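Tip: read the tokens left to right.
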């Protein structure tokens, strides 16, 4: 007797949907609650807590959530968690699309293996194709040792994509944990690096290797913590006390940047009048070129609502770089800081400003340069350290920039430093000067000592002769209208009209079009 074949069981779609929801919940929850407790005990947020702070509520769309590694050996085949230690996808910041990948330190210490890297490659490619910013929330232990060379190849893929997207979309690295070895080159290739004190470290070789090779004992923070990179190496553009403050400023930075290099930065409404007078500047800035003051106060007086978002605030403090709005439109500001090293340019200041100028030019952000510079910092340390080639980086960056460029000379502007600080001779579109400006090869005292050296030495009263010649040099070559008479300054303005003058100039230049010669790329100074 034959039996009838068993009828196939119908798939219950609701059951499958419930199964999907359960798997997704497991993937989003991550490893055990203990792992999350350990993350919090380190003073760090979990990966999804970070995404909640970065992105607008309810906008995150995750991709490849169910991805698992395929590696075997060393027990990996028995440990195959969803996400493979990195959460990837996109969301919105103030309603604008932003792509993100975020390491999950609770899974394999956030280390990078083959599947982990492929997820990052995917979201980087999506960001470039969509023309949207890319943010990395970094909290990883480097290459996954158990996966060998495939992990290293994964980093190579990240680096090549960092370079390909450079100047195309904004790339922001937010360091929220350790980053060692070759992994550090990805943040170094991005546009801005954020770090948090106490939890962020970046270094090529860790403290154990340093001690083994050199005998020097050093902590992780002293070797590569936020303060080191924020003040000494210049690798970190921003440093913070906690993650919430850090991620809030990442959002603020994104609000000042275009989504890609084909768009202009987003404009914003302001109630701050474009023609607001700056009478406070008449008392804030001393007329004497040898007296110091805080240029930051000048910037805050002329920009919209006093909001100046400074980049590299604690590194190379003799020059100020940052983003602001004027008349509702984003501008990049570069300014000498007379309260530090008298505002002289040195190696670090040149590096800092050159990088900032290049970034602004890449993303169509007009440049405003406020000049009060006595020259390049003299001395053997600067010369032997390469001030010639480092100063040339700033010169190159300005000469290569095609965005609208406005220069304002407040007081002194001497020698090569005057030229480098976006003078008319290197392509500044409009140059303005206060009636306190002194533009010359050098200060009157130094010039008199050189030009009239023999005459002063032979005079019966050398001091009186020197004073007379200084006065003569000032009257003939350093008076406030000398450069204007020769067309190197477009106008001498009332300091109280600085804000309105800059905004008017930028308004005229907003549609500026400029082209560089056809070439593969320039050969920038190293």
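Filled-in amino acids:
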């Amino acid at each position: 007797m034959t039996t009838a074949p068993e009828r196939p069981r119908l798939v219950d779609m609701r059951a499958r949907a419930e199964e999907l929801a359960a798997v997704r919940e497991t993937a989003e929850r991550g490893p055990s609650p203990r792992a999350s407790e350990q993350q919090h005990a380190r003073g760090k947020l979990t990966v999804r807590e970070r995404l909640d702070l970065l992105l607008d509520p309810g906008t995150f769309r995750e991709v490849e959530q169910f991805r698992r590694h395929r590696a075997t050996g060393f027990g990996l085949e028995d440990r195959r968690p969803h996400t493979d230690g990195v959460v990837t996808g996109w969301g919105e910041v103030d309603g604008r699309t932003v792509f993100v990948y975020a390491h999950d330190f609770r899974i394999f210490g956030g280390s990078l293996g083959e599947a982990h890297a492929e997820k990052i490659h995917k979201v980087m490619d999506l960001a470039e194709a969509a023309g949207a910013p890319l943010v990395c929330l970094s909290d990883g232990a480097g290459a996954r040792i158990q996966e060998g060379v495939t992990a290293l190849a994964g980093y190579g893929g990240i680096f090549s994509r960092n370079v390909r997207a450079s100047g195309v979309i904004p790339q922001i690295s937010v360091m929220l944990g350790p980053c060692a070895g070759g992994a550090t080159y990805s943040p170094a290739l991005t546009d801005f690096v954020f770090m948090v004190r106490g939890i962020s470290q970046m270094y090529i070789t860790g403290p154990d290797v340093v001690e083994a090779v050199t005998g020097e004992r050093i902590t992780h923070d002293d070797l590569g913590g936020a303060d080191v990179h924020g003040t000494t190496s210049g690798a970190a553009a921003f440093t913070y006390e906690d993650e919430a403050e850090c991620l809030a400023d990442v959002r603020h930075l994104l609000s000042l940047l275009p989504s890609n290099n084909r768009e202009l930065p987003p404009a914003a409404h302001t109630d701050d009048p474009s023609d607001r007078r700056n009478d406070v500047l008449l008392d804030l800035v001393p007329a004497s070129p040898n007296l110091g003051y805080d240029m930051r106060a000048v910037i805050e007086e002329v920009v919209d609502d006093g909001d100046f978002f400074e980049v590299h605030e604690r590194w190379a403090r003799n020059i100020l770089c940052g983003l602001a709005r004027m008349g509702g439109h984003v501008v990049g500001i570069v300014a000498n800081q007379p309260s530090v090293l008298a505002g002289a340019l040195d190696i670090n200041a040149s590096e800092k400003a050159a990088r900032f100028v290049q970034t602004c030019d890449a993303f169509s952000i007009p440049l405003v340069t406020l000049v009060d510079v006595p020259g390049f910092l003299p001395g053997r340390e600067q010369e032997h350290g390469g001030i010639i080639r480092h100063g040339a980086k700033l010169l190159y960056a300005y000469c290569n920039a095609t965005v609208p460029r406005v220069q304002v000379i407040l007081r002194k502007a001497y020698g090569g430093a005057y030229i480098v600080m976006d003078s008319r001779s290197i392509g500044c579109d409009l140059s303005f000067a206060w009636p306190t400006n002194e533009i010359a090869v050098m200060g009157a005292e130094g010039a008199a000592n050189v030009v009239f050296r023999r005459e002063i030495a032979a005079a019966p009263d050398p001091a009186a002769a020197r004073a007379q010649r200084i006065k003569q040099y000032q009257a003939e070559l350093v008076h406030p209208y000398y450069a204007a008479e020769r067309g190197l300054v477009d106008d001498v303005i009332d300091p109280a009209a600085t804000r309105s003058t800059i905004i008017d100039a930028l308004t005229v230049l907003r549609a500026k079009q400029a082209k560089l010669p056809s070439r593969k790329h320039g050969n920038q100074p190293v």
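Residues 13-29 form the longest helix (17 residues). The longest strand covers residues 405-414.
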